[in-house]
Amino acid sequence: MENRVISTNKLTKKFGNFTAVDSISFEVEKGEIFGFLGANGAGKTTAMRMLCGLSKPTSGSGTVAGFDIAKQSEDVKKNIGYMSQKFSLYDDLKVWENLRLFGGIYGMKDKEIAEKTDTILHELGFEKERDTLVKSLPLGWKQKLAFSVSIFHEPKIVFLDEPTGGVDPAARRQFWEMIYAAVERGITVFVTTHYMDEAEYCNRVSIMVDGRIEALDTPKNLKTTFNAASMDGVFQQLARKATRGEN
Amino acid sequence: MFRAFVKKEFYHILRDKRTILILLVMPIVQIILFGFAITTEVKDTPMAILDLSKDNATRQITERLAASNYFTLVRELHNSEEVEKAFQTGSAKLVVVFSENFQENIIHTGEAAVQVIVDATDPNQASTFANYASNIINQWRMENGEWRMNQNNNSQFSTLNSQLRIVPEIKMLYNPQMKGAYNFVPGVMGLVLVLICAMMTSVSIVREKEMGTMEVLLVSPVKPIYILLAKITPYFALSIINLTTILLLSVFVLGVPIMGNLFLLILLSLLFIFVGLSLGVLISNIVETQVAAMLISAVVMMMPTMLLSGMMFPIESMPKILQWISVIPPNRWYVEGVIKLMIMGVDAKYVMKEFAILGFMAIVLMTVSLKKFNIRIER
To answer: Can you list the domains of chain B with their CATH numbers?
Structure first.
């Protein structure tokens, strides 16, 4: 049990007559990189919002980091990190001020924040950028910083919502190295992505179509099952079944 | 945690030079503009005289009119045809006509006719001219014994044609010199405060929505109420700075005194600031972009605020339906309260109504916006 950091049972979200997430059940184990794939409008974001405690399930249940997502969303929030597709840092704050702020939000002590800031700036090679306003950093740097911010408080799980959108391949590679480093430290990674080559980096992948999980396995097994050369082939076969348009 | 948040909000404001300039300089510019340039004061209005009597009495009255700050004697007319011409050429805005045998009539019958003709294309101004002129004439009458006079105030270019058999003694209460600034200071206070509170707050909250940072905050364990409180704290502080600036400027530069209780005035302002902040939060819940937040604040809030709060047009002279609508903008009550407290200097019990209405608005708006804020997270 304690190895399962995320577990859902028939988790469903309806908006009126529209079922955005249709009875999904899956489990994510500690230290895993779990890829959450699906076309736009398949229900990825809604599912993720429920897991993060932002949205209450219509029916079904789920736990994240051992806490019930419907009843203990405050505890869930304390134990997760989140990075949105917009690299949501404050542009008009300096690098260290961003780290300071998010450390403070998660209730870290001043001393702890100061030490951690030094470590992270060193790891990123950002020592010189400590006092730079975030808006003057290149996109790839912002993204790395945003990831560092999302795991600054050492969460049990980090949710990454299309973290590599609009970044060049070299920067994406470096980014995935950071993800692996985080996993080494015992952080579980839940990631949505559009890039099928990135799906190959995940330990296990789920593919959502029209609110349901149509496939869930390791990339290797998925490729065998669907008799495809790449994850892209698998995805194409499944996505073709979709009846919902993009929204 | 909360302190870190408030600090961040201050950074947002202080690092945006344009915002800080608008926030701190705008109130000063507005007060000075409204106080000096856009004045409704009557000063050196061109006046012509048609004196058909040319006696001692008429000469004295003419001199007195011309000596006042309000009027400047530009022409002496010789016959009634010239009166119309004086108005049409724009050389005079006010013509005073003394009937024949003015002094004789006063002495013998106790009655004499003097006609004050005013260009009433601007009715507000016209009635002010007429009032001033009749005040001056009355004064002369009172100082010159028992003479009774029958005045005929006649605004030729409007339909106002009232025969005043008894000339009322008009006394300008609270604002004896009819200074324009007296009217505008409370209005500008209301305007500036609502602008900073509602517009700036809503824009800054919506900006976080646009940037995506709001989502990160909502995923964090911070309670939504803290996010909101931290957002409004700096604007609250700025509003107080602006309130102080405006009050200081109006007392020391425009010479508008604070007649009433300063403490009550500040209390009323704080209440109003709170209403403005709640409105800002409410707007930010409704819209998704900064531009929309700005437009809503400007069009939906500022316009009615300026037009219906009594700042520009007196509420009493509006059509009934607009009078009913005018109870909605909170500015109306604030401006009314400020006029009472600052210029009339009334006791606390006379502003209870304003306090009650603003308090009610504050509670309702805050409740609604907090509720909406929670719903939005739920989505």
So the answer is: 2-38+179-372 (no CATH), 45-163 (3.40.1710.10)
| Spatial CB neighbours of B106, under 8 Å, sequence gap ≥ 6 | B57, B112, B147, B148, B149
d(CA A241, CA A243): 6
Q: How far does A97 lie from chain B, in Å, by closest CA?
A: 8
Task: Report the DSSP pairing between strands A157-161 and A80-83.
Answer: parallel
HSE of B138, CA atoms in CB hemisphere, 13 A: 15
How many other CB atoms are found less than 10 A from the CB of residue B146?
8
Question: What residues of chain A lie within 8 A of the CB of B215, using their CB?
Answer: 54, 82, 84, 88
CB A26 within 8 A of CB A190: no
A109 touches chain B (CB under 8 A): no
What is the reported pLDDT for B310? 67
Residue B168 DSSP symbol: P
C-alpha torsion B67→B71→B76→B77, nearest 10:
-150
- Mean pLDDT value of segment B337-342: 85
pTM above 0.80, yes or no: no
Tell me which chain B residues have a C-beta less than 8 angstroms from the C-beta of A89.
Answer: 213
A–B interface: beta-carbon pairs under 8 A = 72
Provide Rg for chain B, Cα atoms: 27
Query: How is residue B220 annotated by DSSP?
Result: S
- State the ipTM, two decimals: 0.84
Give the residue, B25 or A166, on which the prediction is more confident.
Answer: B25
Q: How far apart are CA B17 and CA B13, in angstroms?
A: 8
Residues of B with CB under 8 A from a CB of A: 1, 3-5, 8, 11-12, 15-16, 211-213, 215-222, 377-379
> What per-residue string of b and e applies to B11-39 under the rule 16 or more CB within 10 Å gives b?
bbbeeeeebeebbeeebeebbeebbeeee
- Interval B362-372 mean pLDDT: 86
Average pLDDT over residues A95-120: 90
- The answer regarding whether domain A1-79+155-247 maps to CATH 3.40.50.300 reads yes
Burial B338-348 (b: 16+ CB within 10 A, else e): bbbbbbeebee
Give all strands (DSSP E) within chain B, no chain letters. Answer: 45-51, 71-77, 94-98, 113-118, 150-154
Q: Min CA distance, A32 vs chain B (Å)?
A: 21
